[in-house]
Amino acid sequence: MGSSLERLTQPLTGQRVHIPHLPDYSVLRHCVRCARCLPVCPTYQETLREVQSPRGRLALLKAVAEGMLPPTPAVEEHLYHCLDCRMCNTVCPAHVPIGECILAGRAALAHQHGLAWWRRLVFRHVLISAERLGPALWPLRLYQRSGLARLVRPMLRALPGPLARLRRMEALLPPLPSHPLHATLPTVTPAQGIRRYRVGFFLGCMMSQLFAAESRATVDVLSAAGCEVITPPGQVCCGSPQDDQGDRVQLRRLARANIALFEHLGTLDAIVTDCAACSHTLKEYATLLEDEPAFATRAAAFSALVRDVYEWYDAILPPTLDYDSTPPLRVTIHDACHLANAQGICAPQRRLLGRIRGIEVVEMEAPSACCGSAGIYNITHPDMADRRLARKLDDILSTSAAVVVTNGPGCLLQLRAAVRERQLPFQVWHISQLLARCQHTHADGIPVPGRCGRAAAEEVRL
Amino acid sequence: MIDARIIAELKATLGAERVLDTLVDRVAYAYDATWGEALPDVVVLPLSTAEVSATLRIAHRERIPVVPRGAASGLSGGAIPINGGICLCLARMNRILEINPDELIAVVQPGVVNMDLQKATARYGLFFPPDPASWDMSTLGGNVAENAGGPRCLKYGVTKDYVLGLEVVLADGSVMRTGGRTIKNVTGYDLTALFVGSEGTLGVVTEIVLKLLPKPAARRTVLAIFDRIGDACAAVNRVITSGVLPLTTELMDGDCIRAVQSQRDHGLPADADAVLLIDVEGWPEALEREVALVRAACEAAGAREVRCARDEAEAEELWAARRAISPALAALGDKLGEDIAVPRSRIPEMVERIRAIGRRYDLRTPVFGHIGDGNLHPYLICDRRDAEMMARVRQAAEEIFLAAIELGGTLSGEHGIGLAKRDYVGRALDPLARAHMLRLKRLFDPHNILNPGKIFAEMDG
Predict the structure, then answer these.
(1) CA–CA separation, A25 vs A106, rounded Å?
(2) What's the rounded Cα separation, in Å, for the pair B165 and B191?
(3) Which fold has domain B218-324?
């Protein structure tokens, strides 16, 4: 083998195995294994097992590409231990897009072994639009309304083994709104007063079906701030769940459909969404479709218009907002992973809340640490999700905040379920719920009545 | 390959979930922060001294190599299992057993991360001075094994200066205690010092008694820009002789400056030859005076410009350039980070030699370092896909090592010898000293199972 220095400076093995979707070897090799990602990775911190760290996951992918490790289902299983919280991306000194590599790895292994039957069912047929999600939820709505829930819940508690997952899913489910928002929201919601902006509203599947009141509040706040809000019918899922679960084929289909749909709306100032996972995925369309000549330019134009609701609020809302409360309402911010870690949006929400008089913002420890919801992770990996949740709840509780604000539907589900189950002394609000309760004063001095529309009338669902 | 019977025995001893033998798991324990890779046969995750001892008893009996591992953030290949065997990962032995503010000591397990100890001691107004650049992920066991340094060693010394006592599991599984809990302790030979920096070749550290210090009240930062790197080195001497012992004296050379500036404007002139970042700490009143002395010393040494941070935010801004070095160099290509130390007066000469070596082998060689303590980190920028270039990189690295030795310095300031530099140890040590080191190795580890092949090439295989 020669000198020891030679052993450490061998030319790279290079890629020997080629599987579609496998992250580019030239990217994988840039991990210098410095270990910077270990202290921020939730799964590594919980397990202290290298294969559950970002560095370990990249090592698996590199070993697969080099032909050293066969692409077995065991590799795939390990890649799914990742929460996809992207915390590692924020600290990597070599700027390796670690989270993206792991998702690409899932897609590569799905290509190798085929997509699991349940993933195929859910991500190709059910969770593809708010509309298609509807029929799946009607029985549950009936279950909640009929009083059956009260009857069944104690029985679920007694379920053994793998069936306990059912209890978990049941407990996560919030009281469903009587109608999903896409069924009741008009295509055009006019601006109140002068029209200052014309925005497309991307209504996420989860927001429409599970958090209709919250998204209604978003539309009301936007309209009160002078936005004409256009919500085109026929939207499909942004593709975030497909991206997360290794289904790149479906992800591309959805992206193309959404781009084409919003192109019909004419000139827009922005495409706004009040779901952090949607805003992240919609912004990624540009890179996703850059290899499709028919869509590359269109995708780039689409992504360039996308604004997370925090960014848009920060840009357009007046410099001061009033929340009527004495003493001030104690609020803490939980940053969704897709917002803070994946998009690097940390300042807008803080500037925004800083403008509201009548609230006091108390930062929690590690506000962008994952709450354990992570898409469907809390169902597929309940133990790890619970450990993350416990840490998050501790961090929230030590702020003594009365309200946690966020804009991730997964976070809303996860945190509200915890509040319900453990009767915790705080509420979890979507940011729009807080803003809908504020009195807005425009820069031109004309006060806009707060407590607008249905949002304020409808009680916060806990 | 280890016999299946032995893996079964390990599983029976530690529990199956803490003995990992699948290829997927082993792949993730094949590396450290160098470019080397070698698969262990099995990974063991002990939780206690007793489990470490049980593992070593089995390994000793069966003559199986054991490579201790913390966070594997090392830069000398120390944690790579080049002979296979057992990867003994101590990351889960991560309890802080005691922090005693009256005695100014902490007792920790080896898997405690340096940063976590810093956080815990800060609550008592105390701190642990060694702060390697990897402080937020490296473990104290690893810090002890490598005798880790960091930027503030000029003022505070290195890890060995803070280790008062150890619990060590020896190769045969027996458990030995060295040192104690006092600063002064001259009872018998200093075995504690022997184990600090032994890179896992003499025993496995399972408990560490560390000395702590009271945390200074305030810190100030000065940045000085020089047209000649020699002037920057002279400035450090002037600062010290003016009666100020700085916390850090970080040097960046022109290549680093330009790399950093190409990423973001930190306000550093691209034609400067060197930048010096000097921190002082103590009471705010005293710092006013110290900052003035540092400024005067730098100006007298010929600094083109001196900037003093007025508050923490400004200090952060000045340090941002220093912290940007590593990512900025990563953008230039692959980089082999080196680590040598020379007597302080020879630093300008060493930098010149590095530059000449870079020219000779047609390689970019940006240099930074903690020059107050003589420690330089030259980087060799390269492309790992290019075999011809990698051969030049090896030759250049070798010449840098030899130049450091020639100037009265040493092969490694703080990264350790490990695998990377073991072939040069013979040229750096007195032959008799080296012979006695090998006798010590054989005394403590007669079957050569503890991290075989590290530090000394003849212990390989």
Answers:
(1) 15
(2) 9
(3) Alpha-Beta Plaits (3.30.70)
Distance from CA of A11 to the nearest CA of B (A): 5
Q: Contact B134/A68, CB-based, under 8 Å?
A: no
Asked if residue B130 lies in contact with residue B148, where contact means CB atoms within 8 angstroms, the answer is yes
Q: Which domains does chain A have, with CATH numbers?
A: 9-113 (1.10.1060.10), 181-313 (1.20.1050), 318-457 (3.40.50)
Buried b (16+ CB within 10 A) or exposed e, A414-448: bbbbbbeeeebebbbbbbbbbbbbbbbbbeeeeeb
Q: Is B336 on the interface with A (CB under 8 A)?
A: yes
Quote the CA–CA distance of B194 and B176 in Å, as a whole number: 13
Measure in Å the smallest separation between the Cα of A79 and chain B Cα atoms: 11
Q: How many CB atoms lie within 10 A of CB A404?
A: 26
Contact B327 A51 (CB under 8 A): no
Residue of B nearest to A92 (CA): B327
User: Which residues of chain B have a CB within 8 Å of the CB of A93?
Assistant: 326-327, 330
- Show me where the domains of chain B are located: 4-91, 96-214, 218-324, 332-419
A132 token code pair: 């298609």
Query: Which chain A positions have a beta carbon within 8 Å of B45's beta carbon?
Result: 48-49
* Letter string b/e over residues B301-310, b meaning 16 or more CB atoms within 10 A of that residue's CB: bebbebbbbe
Nearest to A205 by CA among A443, A409, A414, A34: A409
A interface test, pick of B43, B137, B382 with most A CB neighbours within 10 Å: B137
CATH, range B96-214: 3.30.465.10
Identity at A296, one-letter amino acid code: A
The token pair at A177 is 């709104």
Contacting B residues, span 179-218, partner chain A, CB-CB under 8 Å: none
Nearest to B27 among A4, A6, A59 (CB): A59
pTM: 0.93
Chain A positions touching chain B (beta carbons under 8 Å)? 3-12, 14, 29-30, 32-36, 38-39, 48-51, 53, 55-56, 59-60, 63, 68-70, 72, 74-75, 78, 93-95
**DSSP annotation of A323:** E
Tell me yes or no: is domain B332-419 CATH 2.102.10.10.
no
Residues of A in contact with B385 (CB under 8 A): 11-12, 14
Question: Which residues touch B370 (CB under 8 Å, ≥6 apart)?
Answer: B149, B150, B151, B152, B153, B154, B248, B249, B250, B251
| pLDDT digits (tens), chain A, 462 positions | 468 888 888 888 889 999 999 999 999 999 999 999 999 999 999 999 999 999 999 999 999 999 999 999 999 999 999 999 999 999 999 999 999 999 999 999 999 989 888 888 889 999 999 989 988 888 888 888 888 877 787 777 777 766 777 777 888 888 899 999 999 999 999 999 999 999 999 999 999 999 999 999 999 999 999 999 999 999 999 999 999 999 999 999 999 999 999 999 999 999 999 999 999 999 999 999 999 999 999 999 999 999 999 999 999 999 999 999 889 999 999 999 999 999 999 999 999 999 999 999 999 999 999 999 998 898 899 999 999 999 999 999 999 999 999 999 999 999 999 999 999 999 999 999 999 999 865 545 444 544 333 333 333 333
B260: nearest Cα among B187, B217, B319: B319
Q: Which fold has domain B4-91?
A: 3.30.43
CA B294-B298-B304 angle, to 5 degrees, is 135
d(CA A446, nearest CA chain B) in Å: 38
Residue of A nearest to B30 (CA): A59
Q: Quick check: B327 and A95 CB within 8 A?
A: yes
Q: Does B32 touch chain A (CB under 8 A)?
A: yes
Domains B218-324 and B332-419 share a fold: yes
